[in-house]
């Protein structure tokens, strides 16, 4: 018996499990055949299965008075199905709705899985996982089309055609300036005659020779103001990248220190989590043990024990196994204890009815 009635001497030990706790443990064991994973011990479990091409998870939550009170089952991710309401909770399973003390939790969950496999639900939302969707951008060939007046050789090289005269060069330059570029709407090809006025004095033969002289062409291009500006901007961006890289390297010690602090805090969180789970388990055990209904049951048993002991003392007195003084002393003590426990049981019953425990 409990310390409350003066019968338990192991004050530091956790009380033995009640019938409710034993039934709860048996119900949880029925989930093992479904490979259920534990989220919160004795409170929440997860069962994952595949319905067509989707992975469906059932989140099973056990109330404090389980299995007297039925569990709740939610579906993750949210799905469309006649058995599932808008809160992703299973409400159409008769075995779950009519769940009672002697139901089999594993069979109920198995019936939900079979229903989802026979009538697959529709997942309401899809999210990308670790892999990104395929790249849908444009290719370089569409952004940078080949030169319109170039010719491709069988070897795959692009060769500029020979210009017969300065007029042809002007026509090419003019056509390029007038042709709109959808890829770079703000970019305009410079006019050749304006950028290179010396070309006007050259003959067609000299122009064709110039096309084959890459060094001379490169020098002419490098002297262009736009090219010089581009080189300056490139150097500026390069210096900026170097400066940012140095700043990033200078912050490495701070990042390492913050990383170390995060690791320590994670370890502390894990330690506190373990302690919390242990305290929660002990709290749930004691909460069930000290529930008013359980206490009332224990008091009723104690009243019956006291009555049986007093009757036994009375029978011993009638059989002259004990004398009168011993009978009066022991019988009075047992009857007093019996009436005291009965009064406590009546008072507790009144409290339970009043507060509806």
The fraction of residues in strands falls at 5-15%
Number of helices: 12
In CATH's first tier, which class of the domain at 19-123 applies?
A: Alpha Beta
CATH superfamily of the domain at 19-123: Ubiquitin Conjugating Enzyme
Q: Give the beta-strand count.
A: 8
Order of helices and strands: HEEEEEHHEHEEHHHHHHHH
Q: What oligomeric arrangement do these chains adopt?
A: single chain
How far is the N terminus from the C terminus? 23 Å
The CATH topology annotation of the domain at 19-123 reads as: Ubiquitin Conjugating Enzyme
CATH architecture of the domain at 19-123: Roll
Instruction: Specify the helix fraction band.
Output: 40-55%
For the largest beta sheet, what order do the strands appear in spatially? 1-2-3-4
Q: How would you state the average pLDDT, rounded?
A: 78
Main beta sheet? 4 strands, antiparallel
Structural class: alpha+beta
The backbone outline, from C-alpha atoms, is: elongated
- Rg on CA atoms, Å: 44 Å
Low-confidence stretches: 1-12, 126-167, 179-187
Short description:
The chain contains 12 helices and 8 strands. It is of the alpha+beta class and 357 residues long. Strand 2 (44-51) and strand 3 form a beta hairpin.
Summary tags:
single chain, two-stranded antiparallel ribbon, elongated, 357 residues, 12 helices, alpha+beta, Ubiquitin Conjugating Enzyme, 53% helix
3D structure, described in words:
The protein has 357 residues and is an alpha+beta fold. Among the domains are: 19-123, Roll (Ubiquitin Conjugating Enzyme), CATH 3.10.110.10; 291-355. Helices cover 53% and strands 9% of the residues. It contains twelve helices and eight strands. The protein has helices spanning 19-29, 94-97, 105-118, 140-143, 166-178, 192-195, 204-211, 214-222, 225-250, 252-289, 292-318, 324-355; strands at 37-40, 44-51, 54-61, 72-76, 79-80, 122-123, 151-152, 158-159. It has a four-stranded antiparallel β-sheet with strand order 1-2-3-4, with helices on one face. The chain has a two-stranded antiparallel ribbon with strand order 5-6. It has a two-stranded antiparallel sheet with strand order 7-8. A hairpin with a 3-residue loop joins strand 1 and strand 2. Helix 11 (292-318) packs antiparallel against helix 12. The longest helix is centred in the last third of the chain and has 38 residues, at 252-289. It is elongated, with a radius of gyration of 44 Å.
């Amino acid at each position: 018996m409990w310390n409350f009635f003066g019968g338990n001497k192991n004050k530091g030990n956790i009380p033995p499990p009640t019938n409710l706790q034993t039934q709860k443990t048996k119900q949880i064991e029925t989930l093992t055949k479904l490979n259920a994973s534990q989220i919160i011990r004795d409170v929440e479990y997860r069962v994952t299965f595949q319905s067509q091409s989707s992975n469906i998870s059932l989140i099973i939550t056990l109330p404090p008075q389980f299995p007297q009170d039925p569990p709740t089952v939610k579906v993750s991710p949210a799905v469309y199905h006649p058995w599932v309401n808008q809160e992703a909770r299973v409400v159409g399973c008769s075995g779950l709705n009519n769940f009672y003390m002697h139901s089999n939790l594993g069979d109920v969950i198995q019936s939900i899985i079979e229903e989802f496999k026979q009538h697959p639900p529709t997942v309401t939302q899809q999210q990308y996982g670790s892999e990104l969707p395929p790249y849908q951008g444009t290719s370089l060939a569409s952004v940078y089309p080949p030169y319109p007046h170039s010719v491709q050789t069988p070897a795959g090289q692009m060769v500029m055609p020979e210009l017969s005269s300065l007029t042809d060069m002007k026509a090419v330059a003019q056509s390029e300036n007038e042709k709109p570029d959808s890829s770079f709407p703000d970019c305009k090809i410079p006019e050749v005659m304006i950028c290179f006025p010396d070309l006007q004095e050259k003959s067609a033969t000299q122009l064709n020779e110039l096309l084959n002289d890459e060094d001379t062409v490169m020098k002419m291009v490098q002297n262009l103001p736009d090219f010089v500006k581009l080189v300056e901007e490139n150097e500026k961006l390069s210096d900026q990248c170097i400066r940012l890289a140095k700043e990033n390297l200078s912050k490495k010690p701070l990042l390492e220190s913050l990383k170390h602090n995060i690791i320590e805090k994670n370890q502390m969180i894990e330690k506190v989590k373990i302690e919390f789970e242990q305290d929660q388990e002990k709290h749930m055990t004691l909460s069930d043990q000290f529930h008013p209904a359980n206490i009332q049951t224990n008091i009723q048993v104690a009243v019956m024990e006291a009555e049986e002991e007093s009757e036994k003392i009375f029978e011993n007195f009638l059989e002259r196994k004990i004398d009168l003084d011993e009978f009066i002393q022991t019988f009075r003590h047992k009857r007093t204890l019996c009436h005291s426990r009965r009064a406590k049981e009546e008072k507790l019953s009144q409290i339970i009815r009043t507060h509806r425990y």
